Amino acid sequence: MHIATILPHTLLYGGVKRFLELGNIFFGLGHKVTIYTPTGQEPQWYNFNGEVKDFSSLQEDKIDALFFTETEFVDIALAANAKKCIFYYVYPKENLRIIKKHPNILVFANSTNLVETALKRYKINAIPAFGGVNLEYHNPKNNKREVVSNPFTVMAYGRIARSRKGTKYVIKACEKLFNNGHNIELLLFDTPVNDKMEDKNSKFKTFVPHSFIQNHPVQKNSELFHKANVFVSAEKNAGWANTAAEAMACEIPVIGTESGTRDFLFHEKTGLLVSRNSNSIYRAILRLKNNPEYSIELAQNGRRVIENFTWENLAQRILQQLL
Asked: What is the C-alpha separation between 235 and 237, in angstroms, rounded?
């Protein structure tokens, strides 16, 4: 089967990474895999086994299943030489009214909140296609983690230029902790993909002891997660919170908002749910810092739950829908 995807580019964004990860799984199962973008530029940060082509090939190539994630590409997808068109709902702000006009388009959704949004707002019955996480690159430490750590390291996704990631709330919580005498350290990471992101990251300042690691190889991200005592995700308008899922796979306790985490972050079982403000995050970090055994328990529970959301499992569920 020829499985293809229309993407706006192959830069490092969660919605792009999803199809590169899935593409490699499909390729390994013997399927032909192609990514189509306006320029045909291959990803520089990921070893993709399929082909990357520009849009000019869409009407020439015979495609069995064609995915797209942005409504602006609906006409291009429908004009392609594809047996099936699938809109994969990964961005909550996408307006699905244009998709609803075409009942021949299948709709997948990458999280429970998007399944519910599709039904409630657009009366579309989206097919659950939740996940995923790469367990090969996101493993617990081989050695037992220390129960007590000084300093206590708080990790967050450092995409400063995207306010919906909520990094500023994590920073403010850490600044309050530091001002109150707690021995903490802030760890941020990001791979900036344009000049605006590079500029924002270069201007980042805080008085809290911190590291801001940039352009770290994706395949080695577990090395970063293993430095942390807790990972905090303060997102809004997220479908699937990739970095929170990856932290959980690395057996790092997770604090997060409900956005993007509903399918794996269960309050006081696999992590701590918080409101999207610095005071709520502050209290949750302090709770885990003062209860290391409980922190480890949440992390271990989280790892067991996230193991259900591998890319391999997701690929099999998708194939069942396509065959």
From this structure: 7
List, for residues 254-285, the tens digit of each pLDDT value.
Answer: 999 999 999 999 999 999 999 999 999 999 99
What is the Cα–Cα distance from 247 to 240, expressed in whole angstroms? 13
* Segment (H or E) for 114: helix 112-122
**DSSP characters for 237-283?**
S-SS-HHHHHHHHTT--EEE-STTTTTT--BTTTEEE--SSHHHHHH
Bridge-based pairing state of the strands 152-157 and 127-128: unpaired
Please state the separation of Cα 197 from the chain's center in Å.
Answer: 18
CA–centroid distance for 210 within its chain: 23
Q: How far is CA 93 from CA 71, 90, 124, 146, in A?
A: 11, 9, 15, 41
In whole angstroms, how far apart are CA 154 and each of 111, 151, 301? 26, 9, 19
pLDDT at 250 over 70: yes
Q: Per-residue pLDDT tens for 69-92?
A: 999 999 999 999 999 999 999 999
Query: CA–CA separation, 260 vs 244, rounded Å?
Result: 9
Closest CA relative to residue 108, chosen from 126, 93, 122, 90: 126
Instruction: Give the contacts of 291 (CB within 8 A, at least 6 positions apart).
Output: none
Task: Indicate the pTM of the whole model.
Answer: 0.92
In this predicted structure, what is the pLDDT of residue 218? 87
Q: Are 129 and 317 in contact (CB under 8 A)?
A: yes
What's the rounded Cα separation, in Å, for the pair 215 and 222?
Answer: 14
Tokens of 112: 């429970």
Q: Which helix (H) or strand (E) holds 124?
A: none
Residue 178 gets which letter from DSSP? H
Cβ density class 197-232: b for 16+ within 10 Å, e for less: beebbeeeeeebebeebeeeebeebbebbbebbbbb
Half-sphere exposure at residue 80, Cβ-oriented, CA atoms within 13 angstroms: 29
